[in-house]
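queue> pop job 88
queue> type: inverse folding (structure -> sequence)
queue> payload:
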């Protein structure tokens, strides 16, 4: 009996320790990564997300919801794989392991930001061919088995916008270094978390315009909505009006969104204060 109890306690205590560690380690790594970087920017890694969630984050609203233990564990899994891949590429470059060194300048985990919209982030890998004035932007993505087949056929729209935003950022960065008029192509390097299989997809060029359109519409949303006013107005007219203004916003075939897809809400940091949340039905009065 004692052993059964200890087994449960062991599982719970180690999970609590691990999740708290991952939470604080993630925060300090982010702080380190964005030290001396502008604060009032959207993160490229959040491309494609709900306008309202993005805007509340932008104005530093305190989240009402944090990921659960399983969410933290999943995120850590992805972060570790990214770190390993980046370390492996740096190692290969230093050791002259592959013949890419002759073709490309390899850049990993570099900071970029766009000139005209407040968007910044760190890309995973860029392979720059200076002779051809051309670069390949590669974004690593870890995914679960149950989306593996679908992303192999067609990557998620968030991922496509993200990789193109990094590419636009690098093109601007190169211009600053007097390396003008570089063309580029974008790729997503998918990793199946379950069996660590790899799959690379080339992303169509029209996602460049989609990405820019998304960020411009998001900035328009942030600047024009009263973000403080709609907090906690659950199931209210404020949300219905908000939807009416943005649900119909056509962005190159994508319908604009608060949120874009229903599943976003269950991973959102602001679920409890979002006007989308339904008010609890009032308890029925008992008849006397
Ligand atoms: S709960 Fe849904 S609609 Fe509300 S901010 Fe979050 S993602 Fe957007």
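queue> result:
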């Amino acid at each position: 009996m004692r052993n059964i109890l200890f087994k449960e306690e062991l599982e719970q205590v180690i999970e609590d320790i691990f999740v708290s560690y991952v939470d604080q380690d993630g925060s300090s790594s982010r702080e380190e990564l964005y030290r001396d970087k502008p604060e009032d920017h959207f993160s490229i890694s959040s491309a494609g997300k709900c306008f309202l969630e993005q805007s509340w984050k932008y104005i530093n609203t305190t989240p009402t919801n944090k990921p659960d233990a399983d969410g933290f564990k999943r995120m850590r899994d992805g972060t570790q794989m990214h770190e390993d891949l980046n370390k492996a590429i740096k190692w290969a470059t230093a050791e002259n392991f592959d013949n890419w060194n002759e073709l490309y300048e390899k850049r990993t985990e570099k900071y970029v930001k766009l000139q005209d919209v407040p968007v910044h982030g760190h890309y995973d890998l860029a392979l720059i061919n200076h002779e051809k004035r051309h670069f390949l932007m590669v974004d690593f993505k870890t995914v679960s088995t149950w989306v593996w087949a679908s992303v192999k056929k067609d990557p998620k729209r968030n991922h496509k916008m993200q990789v193109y935003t990094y590419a636009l950022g690098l093109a601007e960065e190169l211009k600053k270094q007097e390396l003008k008029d570089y063309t580029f192509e974008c790729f997503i390097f998918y990793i199946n978390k379950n069996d660590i299989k790899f799959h690379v997809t080339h992303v169509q060029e029209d996602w460049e315009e989609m990405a820019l359109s998304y960020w411009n519409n998001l900035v328009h949303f942030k600047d024009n909505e009263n973000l403080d006013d709609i907090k906690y107005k659950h199931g209210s007219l404020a949300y219905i009006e908000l939807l009416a203004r943005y649900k119909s916003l056509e962005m190159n075939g994508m319908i604009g969104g608060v949120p874009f897809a229903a599943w976003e809400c269950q991973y959102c940091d602001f679920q409890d204060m979002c006007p989308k949340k339904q008010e609890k039905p009032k308890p029925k009065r008992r008849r006397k």
